[in-house]
């Protein structure tokens, strides 16, 4: 006989998104012991007496509500009550959120407990749907049928069934989600927790399993978690391990995991073996790029009881005890493989050096190529920075970087004799180009001048006006000499946005500035060259940021040829830039733009479909260095021993990430805890009566003090208005969207910046944002000091501007059926004001610290410490 369980399921909407959480409630009643009432129950259920046992029960849905005694935790039936309602479908209303992209479909699952017993459960399983059009409002109702089953019987034939039910009940009473959310009508499934909202990480599940006392091998996820946490901080690891009752592995266990690796200078045999295994597992061939770079280390000699650390060590039959005067190591030269058709990288090895000439580096490079060939990895490219010794390394192996008929930007493989194309890191190249323009001040292109002063004038104009012409330029970009190593500053200086801003200022003030177009062209050309060599995704709207494929090969090669010809025409006042002493960055771009197409031709013959040029950059090794330094704490310049230890730990499975930026005594003082509960705001905007408006802050005649905006500010505000509109289009109705957008614009800056995706703001939006800017400038003395300045400005701007915008008949008709003081028009105006004020106030706070600052020295002194090897 099949016996079934009936579950009542509850559903709720919390925090504006739908959560389906199953909660089991046993609404069942035992058969009465009184003979007369018992016979009536049996007659109602149409079963015989011999079928009953001590656990046969009847669902409460067969009783009338007046027959029930309702309690807080459980409901009971009145004595001598007889069931009177036969099975019928009960309907209930569920709330659906239109912003949720998931719907729930009803499926039936059958769980067989024994040969004679089965449990059927109706459960709702979420199914994600993409691009589904749900025909419903923000809060709509759907009728869901829930079947009511006549007789519910729970068999105690097996201990397993009873144990399951006990676990279910115990889970209800101890579940943190249920106990903390009881008053909010949020319930948790007790059979299991399959929903993503409350699913626990696999690491925590593994830790909880180990509470049972079973000793088994740690899973890779738990090993990775332990290794990563121990790498960042041993104290933090000990704290977490203590809190989890020593369920994490001991520190000695972690040291044993590391001990299997050699980690000494030289090529790492464990890595080479892992590469061979990787090649055997993969069905397709593995293509890689070899990256070479060095990291400065601290000059420090250490002894651990067995050997010395800190001397020069090339890893091949090197023994410092046999050398009379061994030199202390100043750098670590690292070789790394980066997969071109996969998502991994691995360091091949490292060498502790004091100084290494080009011939010695060439020997190490040849040895690395031979070892890589033995693993089965296919290698056709090599990346290094613009250091002269690296160029000498390649010329010793047969390369020739002289522009002309003898130009040969590749070397030959020592075994296969195939081409290995050389790439100078584009990130270093863009820095060198920026430094050349900033130091020389003037460059020449076809007898026309390129001025660094044009970029300085643009930054001065932005600083004077208080707003940027959609650029990233700051004082840091102009005073770059203390931040020469920062790639971001160089890329943002020679960028498309700076090129567009120069054209914009030249059109706006033709007599005052008269900036030559060559400076804007210079920025645009090197921006596109850098984009071609820094492609991270296969598809992009801009052609220079698309992956290299057979379809766009000819187009991109033709455009790259134009950039190469442009670079060849550049020069100083006396000579061509390619024969000058500052030619490395310009030569690097020519080498990379030439080799990327030749490399793709070879890879395409071996089954390669597209090439992401970001894989050919040195960033992969730089992030590895960042992870190495992250273990040093306050001193991110590791010694040789610290480098070896960190190197071994990074080779083991981990989840260590590079730092996005470059960084007290322990005491027993207890922290005074404060509540972390989020404060609830009653409204988006502050009421007028809640804001104290002092006479000094705002005068009644402040409108007469509003300044007129300059043509520059007027154009920039129009451009910002487009961003405000784009933000609003996400959350407003389609009718209001027609009032804030336009089909065209007369803005010079918007037309110059437009690549087809910009949003054109309407005149009403521009009127509001321009008025906001005028009010901000009229009250500049309190903008950076008044705490509630946003509320003050919002109220005053709304009072003056609300009645003069969006006054067309369509808007009047749209808000006719809405509240007089809280309609779409008022909310639209308030939203425009709020978004614009947020942008401006954040900008003012960011610019406040730069006022009066003459130079930035933190980055400079940090790098000087590295270069001093201390």
From TrEMBL:
Q: Where is the THAP-type domain?
A: 1-86
UniProt-listed InterPro entries: THAP9-like_HTH (IPR021896), THAP_Znf (IPR006612), TNP-like_GBD (IPR048366), TNP-like_RNaseH_C (IPR048367), TNP-like_RNaseH_N (IPR048365)
Q: Which GO terms describe its molecular function?
A: DNA binding; zinc ion binding
Keyword Glycoprotein attributed: no
PROSITE patterns listed in its UniProt record? ZF_THAP (PS50950)
Its keywords, alphabetically, are: DNA-binding, Metal-binding, Zinc, Zinc-finger
Q: Which residues form the signal peptide?
A: none
The protein here is known as: THAP domain-containing protein 9
Protein's organism: Cyphomyrmex costatus
Q: What is the lineage of its organism?
A: Eukaryota, Metazoa, Ecdysozoa, Arthropoda, Hexapoda
């Amino acid at each position: 006989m099949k016996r079934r369980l009936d579950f009542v399921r509850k559903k709720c909407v919390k925090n504006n998104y739908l959560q389906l959480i199953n909660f089991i409630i046993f609404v069942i009643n035992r058969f009465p012991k009184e003979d007369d009432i018992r016979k009536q129950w049996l007659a109602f259920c149409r079963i015989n007496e011999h079928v009953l046992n001590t656990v046969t029960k009847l669902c409460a849905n067969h009783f009338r509500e007046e027959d029930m005694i309702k309690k807080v935790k459980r409901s009971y039936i009145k004595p001598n009550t007889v069931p009177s309602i036969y099975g019928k479908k009960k309907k209930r209303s569920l709330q659906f959120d239109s912003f949720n992209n998931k719907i729930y479909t009803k499926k039936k699952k059958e769980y067989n407990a024994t040969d004679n017993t089965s449990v059927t459960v109706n459960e709702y399983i979420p199914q994600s749907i993409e691009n589904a059009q749900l025909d419903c409002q923000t809060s709509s109702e759907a009728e869901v049928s829930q079947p009511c089953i006549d007789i519910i019987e729970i068999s105690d034939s097996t201990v397993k069934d009873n144990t399951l039910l006990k676990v279910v009940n115990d889970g209800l009473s101890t579940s943190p989600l249920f106990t903390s959310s009881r008053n909010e009508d949020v319930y948790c499934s007790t059979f299991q927790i399959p929903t993503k909202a409350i699913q626990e990480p696999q690491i925590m599940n593994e830790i909880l399993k180990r509470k049972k006392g079973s000793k088994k091998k740690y899973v890779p996820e738990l090993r990775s978690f332990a290794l990563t946490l121990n790498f960042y901080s041993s104290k933090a690891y000990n704290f977490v391990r203590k809190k989890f009752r020593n369920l994490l592995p001991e520190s000695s266990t972690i040291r044993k995991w590391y001990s299997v690796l050699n980690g000494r200078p030289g090529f790492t045999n464990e890595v080479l073996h892992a590469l061979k295994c990787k090649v055997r597992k993969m069905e397709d061939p593995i293509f890689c790029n070899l990256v070479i770079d060095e990291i400065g280390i601290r000059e420090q000699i250490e002894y651990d009881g067995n050997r010395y650390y800190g001397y020069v060590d090339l890893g091949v039959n090197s023994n410092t005890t046999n050398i009379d005067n061994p030199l202390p190591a100043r750098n670590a030269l690292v070789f790394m493989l980066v997969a071109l058709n996969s998502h991994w990288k691995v360091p091949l090895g490292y060498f502790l050096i004091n100084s290494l000439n080009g011939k010695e580096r060439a020997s190490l490079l040849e040895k690395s190529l031979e070892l890589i060939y033995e693993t089965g990895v296919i290698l056709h490219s090599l990346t290094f920075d613009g250091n002269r010794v690296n160029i000498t390394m390649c010329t010793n192996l047969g390369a020739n970087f002289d522009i002309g008929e003898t130009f040969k930007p590749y070397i030959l493989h020592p075994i296969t004799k195939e081409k290995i194309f050389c790439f100078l890191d584009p990130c270093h190249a863009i820095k060198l180009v920026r430094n050349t323009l900033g130091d020389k001040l003037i460059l020449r292109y076809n007898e026309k001048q390129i001025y660094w002063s044009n970029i300085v004038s643009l930054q001065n104009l932005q600083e004077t006006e208080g707003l940027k012409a959609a650029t990233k330029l700051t004082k840091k970009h102009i005073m770059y000499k203390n931040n020469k190593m920062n790639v971001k500053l160089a890329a943002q200086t020679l960028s498309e946005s700076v090129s567009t801003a120069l054209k914009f200022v030249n059109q706006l003030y033709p007599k005052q500035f008269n900036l030559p177009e060559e400076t804007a062209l210079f920025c645009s050309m090197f921006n596109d060259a850098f984009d071609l060599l820094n492609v991270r995704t296969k598809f992009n709207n801009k052609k220079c940021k698309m992956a290299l494929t057979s379809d766009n090969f000819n187009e991109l090669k033709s455009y790259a040829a134009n950039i190469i010809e442009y670079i060849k025409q550049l020069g100083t006042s006396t000579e061509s830039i390619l024969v000058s002493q500052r030619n490395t960055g310009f030569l690097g771009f020519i080498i990379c733009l030439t080799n990327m197409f030749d490399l793709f031709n070879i890879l395409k013959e071996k089954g390669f479909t597209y090439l992401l040029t970001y894989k050919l950059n040195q960033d992969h090794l730089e992030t590895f260095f960042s992870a190495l330094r992250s273990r040093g704490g306050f001193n991110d310049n590791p010694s040789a021993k610290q480098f070896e230890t960190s190197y071994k730990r990074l080779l083991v499975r981990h989840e260590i990430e590079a730092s996005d930026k470059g960084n007290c005594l322990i005491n027993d003082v207890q922290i005074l805890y404060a509540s972390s509960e989020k404060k609830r705001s009653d409204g988006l905007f502050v009421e007028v009566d809640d804001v104290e408006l002092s006479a000094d802050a705002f005068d009644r005649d402040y409108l007469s003090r509003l300044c007129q905006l300059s043509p520059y500010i007027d154009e920039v505000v129009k451009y910002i208005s487009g961003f405000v509109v784009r933000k609003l289009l996400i959350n407003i109705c389609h009718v209001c969207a027609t009032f804030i957008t336009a089909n065209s614009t007369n803005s010079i800056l918007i037309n110059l910046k437009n690549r087809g995706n910009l949003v054109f703001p309407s005149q009403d939006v521009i009127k509001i944002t321009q008025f906001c800017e005028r009010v901000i400038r009229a009250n500049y003395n309190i903008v950076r000091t008044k705490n509630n300045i946003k509320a003050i400005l919002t109220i005053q701007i709304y009072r003056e501007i609300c009645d003069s915008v969006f006054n067309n008949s369509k808007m009047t008709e749209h808000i006719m059926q809405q509240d007089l003081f809280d309609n779409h028009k008022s909310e639209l105006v308030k939203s425009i004001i709020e978004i614009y004020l947020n942008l401006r106030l954040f900008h003012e706070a960011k610019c406040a610290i730069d006022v009066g600052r003459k130079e930035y020295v933190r980055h400079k002194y940090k790098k000087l410490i590295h270069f001093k090897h201390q």
